[in-house]
Amino acid sequence: MPTxxxxxxxxxxxxxxxxxxxxxxxxxxxVAIARAELPSPELSRYLYTAVGxxxxxxxxxxxxxxxxxxxxxxxxxxxxxxxVRGTPAGYAELDPQPDGLVEITCFGLLPAxxxxxxxxxxxxxxxxxxxxxxxxxxxxxxxRRVRLTTSSNDHPAALxxxxxxGFRVYDVTVATGTFDHTPPGPWPGAx
Length: 191
Fold this sequence. Notes:
- With 191 residues, this protein is of the alpha+beta class.
- It is built from 4 helices and 7 strands; from the N terminus they run ββααβββαβαβ.
């Protein structure tokens, strides 16, 4: 498959206190957001590929079942899933770091659910759950900072959504990457 060089911009964003969160309005479409409390490599891999397949999310594609399970089983890692009428619409993954830092390592919607206000609502819930993560985990220090990174490869509305929810850019990096001509899609051969 042909490859191409692409300049990729990464925006690193953060909130330094829960008062910085600016919740989005609840969308008109009924959305239920719940934590997947049991580590499920199958679910997480599905969400990762379904959300990230069109945006070159490839870092975890080669992970084995055990690698997924080890990642998800770490204390404090949480997966929050948005459902519309019982169908997964998107997700957020929270990854606790030392010293009260929580990273939102994965966030996004399946393509069929964009443009309906679901992303802002899901991000509002995910950020709030990052801020109160210590209330659900023994021996976890209170959250002092919530961070995330978005890329020029991500959905065009991603950066705007993060900033509208109160996240501020604290660093920008630009690098050149080599990518297949088209993103991998949600499963091999889907394109």
